[in-house]
Design a protein that fits this description.
Distance between the termini: 92 Å
Structural class: alpha+beta
Radius of gyration: 27 Å
Number of helices: 8
Shape: extended
Largest sheet: 6 strands, antiparallel
Length: 292
Amino acid sequence: MKLIKRYFVLLLIALMAVPAFAAAPTGDDDDKDPSIQRGIRRLHPERERVKAMKRLQEQMSRKAEPKDDPWDTSGDLWGTVDVPPVPLPDSAAVEGHRLHTSKTPAEQAALDSLLSIDYTIGEYGYRRMTWRDLPVTATVDQLMPYFTVDSGECRSKYVSIDKTSNEVYFAFDVNEMDSMPGPLRLCVRYCADDPLDFDQMVFTIDGYDYPFYPTDPQQGTLDGGLYWEHSDDVLREAHKDLVYALAHSNWVALKLVSRRGIHHVKMLTDGQRADFAHTLDLYRLCGGDFSQ
């Protein structure tokens, strides 16, 4: 008899505890699962660019004197992003959650429909961009106002090739005697009051890193204690994913990695990203490919 009474007391305590546990608030702020946060970032890559720009503006507002080096973001709160793909929900964990959670049939059906969605669909931006041979909708006549041809090189008219400039852009050579353009090239121009001696670039595009290794960077000095460094590299078949991502990006951060252990990070502008897209389209319309 005592055993039965003890059983009923324990059962009563358990029944009283369940509603209190179920009523405990669980706000969105308590959900710290990194995979969920990463999924939101990938679903809305434009938000990451806005936040990065805001952090840069906050950093600049904190400086009593602006730095002469336009690439210098030392002390900044952000850098390149290394975000692994979003994992799918574990089926065992889902089943365990169902066993300990009471839901109406309608609620369970709604949950099942959400869990059945494939959250890795490329159109929603979860995956690293790879080359897609999409048709070019613009015409040569529509694109040419954006370009200049100087000494046989076709590049955006907004690019400055002065040695004191800092630029990142695509370019290709044209020859009046030959209807085919030269290979597409990636050009980087750096100038500051400190030497960098970079030997690697890391483009962070919508949250994914695309490394690039320049073959023969050139460097020199200018009056006033300035140092310039330039790289000019042909883009081959192996670089097509990088080319496509630059031309279709929502935001891009470029890190120049130095042999000296000093890294400079630059957030590319909307105009620079548009130049990548326009140059790639014009290059393809002129018959260019990546087999050269």
